[in-house]
Amino acid sequence: VQLQASGGGLVQPGGSLRLSCKVPGLSLDSYAIGWFRQAPGSEREYVGHITGTGSDDTVYADSVKGRFTISIDYAKNMVGLQMNNLKPEDTAVYYCAARRAFSASYNFWGQGTQVTVSS
Fold first, then answer.
1. What pLDDT is recorded for position 31?
2. Distances (CA, A) of 59 to 9, 24, 116
3. Cβ–Cβ < 8 Å for 94, 81
4. Are 117 and 86 in contact (CB under 8 A)?
5. H/E run at residue 13
6. Strand locations in the chain (E)
7. Which pLDDT band holds residue 104 (cuts at 50, 70, 90)?
8. Each residue's pLDDT tens digit, 45-90
9. What is the pLDDT of residue 64?
10. CA atoms within 13 A on the CB side of 29
11. In angstroms, rounded to a whole number, what is the distance separating the alpha carbons of residues 90 and 83?
12. How high is the mean pLDDT of the chain?
């Protein structure tokens, strides 16, 4: 299964961007979809995740809490990452990944999409 992240681009500080993750072949009501990011020279960082078990519980890293929102579109089998009030330190390649809802390991990954926050 190959997830497909898209929607990256160049945005000014304080701006907004919405990323999408297509999840072909997986039933989102039994999987958790996570977002991660990796800046040049840095390790991959957890951004947040949503668990599609009906309650759509979300968890966020402290660095993005209150600015980023993860949601599921069950009709399109996609997961969105709405990013508001973007900061230069949000610049990174963003990846989406999937794991079974009650598993600890992400087994399926997407190819990543570049987000650049700069004036």
1. 92
2. 24, 23, 23
3. yes
4. yes
5. none
6. 4-6, 9-11, 17-22, 31-38, 45-51, 57-60, 68-73, 78-83, 92-100, 108-109, 113-117
7. confident
8. 999 999 987 788 999 999 999 999 999 999 999 999 999 999 999 9
9. 98
10. 4
11. 9
12. 95
